[in-house]
């Protein structure tokens, strides 16, 4: 918006006319209803009263009272319009009428420029929002692409580090050489024991991986199970997990997990670089 200059509203004094005179001209030339009513109503009332007063009784009885009021209003309206036309013609002959027209032209230009300015301002704001969203989307895609380049071992470690950085009490059991029995990590949060598996696959995960995890969940008697993949899940996998204590997550879902308060005694130094286990002291 720095290169878009906001229009400046013109002032009457810059055109050699006062605000009072501007109001005077506008009241006449723009058919101000209040100004017209100020002299139009007395004309209408006087016409109705005068016609009914001058009308002979024999003729007056011939007309319904409604028409004795309505019919005189017709010439009264024509007379009011004639007065208004005369007032306009007189105003146009006044010496500062030219200054008024110049000011009015500047005001109209100002309104048009203001409308254009607001449209440009709105469009610029939308463009900034679109650029920011595109930048955020690109950064997210670049970050997710780096995750997909990790092998199974590195992916497990990154998942554990991410969970730990969010305050979760997590243990990387997949690092045990003796076998992890289908459990890559264990999370304890809010009194729940959650087991998890990490799948660094280039393609979507099928329902078979979810069935395997469900069997491990029953065997481990855990409260919940997480399956975290680098790509995504087929509809069959999501259908099988529906209604079960199984949560399917992509890297994006993992990064969006809310942070929790770290248990007392757990520090970043509690994570071992050798075996990837986060311990509480």
Features:
Trna Endonuclease, Chain: A, domain 1, alpha/beta, 5-stranded mixed sheet, 2 domains, elongated, 281 residues
Major sheet: size, sense and barrel closure? 5 strands, mixed
- Detail the poorly predicted runs: 268-281
What's the end-to-end separation, in Å? 55 Å
Spatial strand order of the main sheet: 1-2-3-4-5
Give the domain tally: 2
**Taking all residues together, what is the mean pLDDT?**
82
Contiguous helical run count: 9
Classify the secondary structure makeup into a structural class: alpha/beta
Helix content: 55-70%
CATH topology group of the largest domain: Trna Endonuclease, Chain: A, domain 1
CATH architecture of the largest domain: 3-Layer(aba) Sandwich
Radius of gyration: 42 Å
β-sheet strand percentage = 5-15%
Query: What is the count of β-strands?
Result: 5
Kindly provide the name of the CATH class of the largest domain: Alpha Beta
């Amino acid at each position: 918006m720095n290169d878009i200059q906001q229009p400046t509203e013109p002032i009457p004094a810059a055109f050699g006319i006062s605000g009072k005179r501007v109001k005077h001209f506008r009241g006449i030339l723009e058919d101000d209803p209040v100004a017209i009513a100020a002299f139009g109503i007395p004309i209408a009332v006087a016409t109705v009263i005068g016609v009914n007063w001058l009308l002979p009784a024999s003729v007056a009885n011939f007309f319904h009272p409604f028409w004795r009021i309505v019919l005189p209003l017709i010439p009264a309206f024509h007379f009011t319009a004639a007065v208004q036309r005369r007032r306009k013609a007189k105003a146009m002959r006044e010496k500062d009428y030219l200054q008024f027209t110049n000011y009015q032209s500047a005001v109209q230009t100002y309104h048009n420029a203001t409308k254009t300015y607001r449209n440009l301002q709105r469009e610029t704001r939308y463009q900034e929002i679109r650029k920011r969203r595109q930048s955020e989307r690109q950064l997210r895609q670049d970050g997710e692409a780096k995750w997909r380049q990790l092998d199974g071992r590195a992916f497990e470690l990154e998942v554990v580090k991410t969970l730990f950085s969010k305050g979760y009490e997590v243990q990387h059991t997949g690092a045990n050489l003796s076998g992890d029995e289908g459990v890559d990590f264990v999370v304890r949060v809010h009194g729940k024991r959650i087991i998890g598996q990490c799948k660094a696959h280039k393609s979507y995960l099928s329902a078979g991986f979810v069935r395997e995890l469900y069997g491990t969940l029953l065997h481990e008697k855990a409260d919940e199970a997480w399956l975290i993949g680098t790509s995504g899940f087929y509809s069959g996998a999501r259908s099988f997990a529906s209604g079960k204590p199984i949560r399917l997550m992509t890297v994006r879902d993992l990064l969006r997990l809310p942070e929790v308060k770290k248990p007392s005694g757990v520090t970043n130094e509690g994570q071992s670089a050798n075996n990837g286990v986060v311990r509480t002291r």
